Amino acid sequence: MMEVSIRNVRKEFDRFPALHDVSLDIRSGELIALLGPSGSGKTTLLRLIAGLERPTAGSVFFGAEDASQKSVQERNVGFVFQHYALFRHMTVADNIGFGLKVRPAESRPPKDVIRKRASELLDLVQLSGLERRYPSQLSGGQRQRVALARAMAIEPKVLLLDEPFGALDAQVRRELRRWLREIHEATGHTTVFVTHDQEEALELADRVVVMSQGRIEQVGTADEVYDTPNSPFVYGFIGESSALPVRVEGGELWLQDRSIGLSVRDVPEGEASLYFRPHEIELLEGCGGCIAGTVAASRRVAGSRRVELEIGGENHKVEIELPIEHPAAGKSRIAFRPRRWRVFPAGAERRQRAA
Ligand code: ADP
Ligand code: MG
After folding, report:
1. First vs last Cα of the chain: how many Å apart?
2. What average pLDDT does this structure show over 159-163?
């Protein structure tokens, strides 16, 4: 068990900043997911924790100890990568025991202990009996389970998983996700899991770290990042969202020449963007203080109906979600108001893109 603290870490590759000032406290025993689009710096952050990269500035603490200058071996971390192949010429049991076998003589367990540990781990990853197989005789999902057993064999302080299920098909991924959560509950390793798949992150992790362009956008439980996104990026990246340009005037939100019945505090007067989730709205009858729009398209999505509304004369479109049977689904004009929403000052998105 080990807590990891990343403090003001910057990482440049040939002057290109892959990570800007990143700070993050990973709690002992938690399963934390680094979630972000490709190129957002997830792998770089994981490699810095592992000791495969050194920060350009800042430090990485393991417990109370500054691990920044320590080697991978000294940090005693376990890894699983998307394509980190097993050793092809070694059996499953030898693959799992490898990390123990290559230890210096004074800390290397005896052979039979290594064999026993390998077979316990195979039980844990639900592959008992496959000790003598070679990697080529396993399915993709089985190989990744062996890779996880190998990573755990050294009793790592921290387990680092970089898109470990990325190469597998959707069905297997979902199974392994549930399975990993169970293993984590049984073993309690501090685990950092990298993924670009929001569903995977939200379902699996105790906390999700949303990353974009080398920065942490938000850290929180699945509920927190989904229900209260703190930036336009998080709104757009996790779940679905609608955005509408509005104006803040006298502490109220305005759409063209009418107030939409929402008041704000802590947002400067002037141009702004209103964000909300398509399903978090209430329909209204008349429109005194609401958003009204013309139905531009309507489609069924699983158990509900998605309606695309054209708002005002300026061709802004938003999506709202209605129950399938709702009579409004047949109307050509609909008035609504978001139940849960956030307003960001104009420029919040631009600043983000430029960053
Ligand atoms: P992610 O894992 O989120 O896809 P990475 O951490 O791999 O992102 O990369 C973040 C950024 O750093 C990218 O722009 C990538 O091109 C750059 N980068 C990563 N590793 C290197 C490297 N060894 N040399 C140069 N640039 C790198
Ligand atoms: Mg990556």
Report:
1. 36
2. 95
